[in-house]
Write a structure and sequence with these properties.
Rossmann fold, seven-stranded mixed sheet, 7 strands, single chain, alpha/beta, elongated, 10 helices, GTPase activity, Small_GTP-bd, disordered C terminus
Length: 311
């Protein structure tokens, strides 16, 4: 019985640690109707294929924690996903959800060229309604149907390359919500780009309009965050900051050792029987007046006091 209780408490603590995160970021899914935005979100969050899917009206929500890095550099980012309606009649409604988004996933159908060309309208809305530092990733869904689809409907690779050259700030990838291929990689790209912008100071989690907020596991206190932000603006990387801090610690240790050694030398001098040499006084001495016998005419007051004389 004791072993079971111990294992249960350990599992509970592991479960609690898995739910904690460093940042929370708002990410919206955009794209024409029927491209599989809801299926992508369901596959990512639930890890399964959504067999029956109806058209989204308004917006649907889901969230999942993504881990970026490993070991001491591990950062947990909770992606708060907003699945918007792709139908034209809901576009005016969904535009109200653009504000405050830190990341955008632009979904198109790889076997439907028209959906890829419609992305230009969504991109225009994103650039006008979100912050300039927004992270955008374009993803071609239904990649599992490329081999069986009509070639005239497939999005040509040359057109995708042209799109990438015209929009260098947008990462392009492909996925399949049905098979799950490329789904994890899609959101890993989003989380990694968000973290990079946070560390470079392009996104300030303390800004309520940035789309990113601090989570329940602060990686540093407020003063450290400010210094890290200043270093990031100067172009310092996390690795350079590490070595700079390490050099500073070594400098402090060296100063402490020097102080201890100097303190030891001073204490040894105090305990020694050797008399300390005094510096000669720089104060000018009074001229000594000699009497007729050549003796000092000044009277030793201490000597007279001992003998009982009063001067």
């Amino acid at each position: 019985m004791p072993s079971n209780s111990t294992s249960n408490s350990t599992d509970a603590s592991d479960f609690d640690s898995d739910l904690r995160y460093d940042y929370i970021a708002k990410v919206i899914l955009l794209g024409p109707s029927g491209c599989g935005k809801s299926c992508i979100m369901h596959r990512f969050v639930k890890g399964e294929w959504k067999v029956s899917s109806s058209q989204t009206i308004g917006v649907e929500f889901a969230s999942k924690i993504v881990r970026v890095g490993s070991g001491s550099n591990l950062t947990r980012i909770k992606l708060q996903l907003w699945d918007t309606a792709g139908q034209e009649r809901f576009r005016a409604l969904t535009r109200s959800y653009y504000r405050g988004a830190a990341g955008v996933v632009l979904v198109y159908d790889t076997v439907n060229r028209s959906t890829f060309r419609q992305l230009a309208e969504f991109i225009q809305d994103v650039r006008s309604l979100t912050c300039p530092q927004v992270t955008m990733v374009a993803c071609g869904n239904k990649a599992d149907l490329i081999e069986e689809a009509d070639r005239t409907w497939i999005v040509p690779p040359a057109e995708v390359r042209t799109f990438s050259q015209s929009n260098p700030d947008i990462t392009v990838t492909t996925c399949s919500a049905k098979s799950g291929k490329g789904i994890e990689d899609l959101f890993d790209k989003v989380a990694a780009q968000l973290l990079t912008k946070i560390e470079l100071g392009e996104i300030d989690p303390e800004d309520m309009n940035s789309g990113v907020q601090y989570g329940d596991v602060p990686r540093w206190d407020r003063s450290t965050k400010k210094s890290r932000k200043k270093d990031s603006k100067k172009g310092f990387s996390a690795l350079s900051r590490f070595f700079a801090n390490r050099a500073g610690e070594e400098e402090i240790k060296k100063d402490q050792q020097d102080k201890e050694e100097s303190g030891g030398r001073s204490s040894s001098r105090k305990n020694s029987n050797t008399p300390l040499l005094r510096r000669p006084s720089t104060v000018e001495q009074e001229p000594i007046e000699l009497d007729g016998r050549g003796a000092d005419s000044r009277v030793d007051v201490a000597q007279q006091t001992k003998s009982g004389c009063c001067y």
